[in-house]
Amino acid sequence: MIGFFLQAQNDTIAAASGAVIENIATDNEISVLEFILKGGFFLIPIALLLFYTIYVIIERYIYLKKHTKYDTHLMKDIRIHLNSGNIEMAIASAEKDTTASGNVIKEGLHTIGRPIAEIESNMEKVANIEIGQMERRLGHLGLIAGIAPTLGFIGTIGGVIKIFYSISITENISIGNISGGLYEKMISSGSGLIVGIVAYSAYHLFNGVIDSFSLNIQRHVLEFVNIIQRPNATNKTK
């Protein structure tokens, strides 16, 4: 009988302890948004930089995808038209191509009749203008890649200063007091690093696309100049 009573009492204590632990765990649970907001004031500029980074990435991706395309049939059509002496048809073919390479080839067609060096120079100028348009706002991504982590570190340092100032006033050096305030301030560092990594990655990926376009356009300019200098070279080889 006594054993049964002790067992029942132990079960009651265990159940009560489990309920208390469960309530504590429930009370300590916070949403992701609440957790992020504990990062402090510096999360506001970091969030603004994140939204602007996303906007630039989407806008530049759409622009580059449209303007870095290359129609493989364009140069073939232009070669055929120039070999037949029909410059107007060659220009009409280039007018249909609204990409950056099409604009460069179009400039070359409009300057046919001038010295080769001048034609090549004009085409390179147009190519540089197109590349400059592609690089718009990419400098902003490079700047954000450096600013966002710095803002996060400043937020964390500011939080640490506040923690030690509070300790100097209250003389409370408990682990809970230090870690509780520190983990909140580390959120700003983590957020800044994430935004910086996104901006840094997008910056270099877009620059890689532009570098690839720059290399291709140089090849197209050379091919166009060769067509002008040796318009019937293909026919002679046949």
From TrEMBL:
**Location(s), subcellular:** Cell membrane; Membrane
Q: Where is the MotA/TolQ/ExbB proton channel domain?
A: 101-217
Q: Which InterPro entries match?
A: ExbB/TolQ_transport (IPR050790), MotA_ExbB_proton_chnl (IPR002898)
Q: Which Pfam families match?
A: MotA_ExbB
Principal place where this protein is found?
Answer: membrane
Give TM regions.
35-58, 141-167, 187-206
Q: Name one GO cellular component term.
A: plasma membrane
Keywords (alphabetical) are:
Cell membrane, Membrane, Protein transport, Transmembrane, Transmembrane helix, Transport
Q: Which Gene Ontology BP terms does the record give?
A: protein import
Q: How does it sit in the membrane?
A: Multi-pass membrane protein
State the similarity comment: Belongs to the exbB/tolQ family.
Q: What is this protein called?
A: Biopolymer transport protein ExbB
Species classification: Bacteria, Pseudomonadati, Bacteroidota, Flavobacteriia, Flavobacteriales
